[in-house]
Amino acid sequence: MEPIEEFGNDVTISARSTIDGETIVRPATFITTSWDDGHPLDLRVAELLSKYGLRGTFYIPMSAENETMPAAQIRELSLTFEIGAHTLHHAVLTETTEQKAWQEIAGSKSWLENNTGLPCLMFCPPKGKYTNRHLEMVRTAGYLGVRNVELLSLDFPRNNAGIMLLPTTIQAYPHGSLAFAKNAVKRMALKNLLRLMTHSRSTDWPALARSLLHESIRCGGVFHLWGHSWELQETGHWQRLDEALRCMSEVAIQAPSLTNGQICQRALSSNASVDETALREEIAR
Ligand SMILES: [Zn+2]
Q: What is the pTM of this model?
């Protein structure tokens, strides 16, 4: 199999604040969330996001191993949240033919756009498996970006020949340290490995999330929480999710909450800058 080339142009976004007439520039921080598989319990995640004023992107296939929500529910969800594609049949791209992969990538975009009447900008490959060939298909189909399953990252999306690759920071799931280490080693992501060593005292995922969230506020970048609603149900972690989202909402003034697509759009015009003073005034109104 062709190796995945995930390296791209480094992107930085700065934030400008005016304090006592003095302009301070520092790296910007954004927070985002994403939810895979389109299970009807996604509506419970959506309720919690709304409760805390946070944005999210729901990656929804037409069908999957687990139950998926009907078209009317997807339309309703699209009024408040971004809907991204997750293939038509939750197909693992590396386990299918090129022709089938193309149908799954392009077909899921038009299926969602026909259903919601909105452009579908983001794609998420099931199980995080794809090759460079699939990235070319994603680009040809007209997507803006791909959300992958890299964990412990606080990076802005990387521009890979016109497709924005958006990593994640933490999954709403009780992974052990070994799973995080394997995820970083597989991608030769030294920064993520070092981050694991720095933050690994926090074994419960909301505590680890809080610790990484504070690093993102200090150093700039994107804090990205992702998960599956059916998994939250299986692990009984709804209360933990509530706790993590509350923490995120508490920093929303320093770190605005955006959808996956909005973060990719901002990163596409690199060296973009955010006027935090204007943002604070807007939130206060
Ligand atoms: Zn999935």
A: 0.88
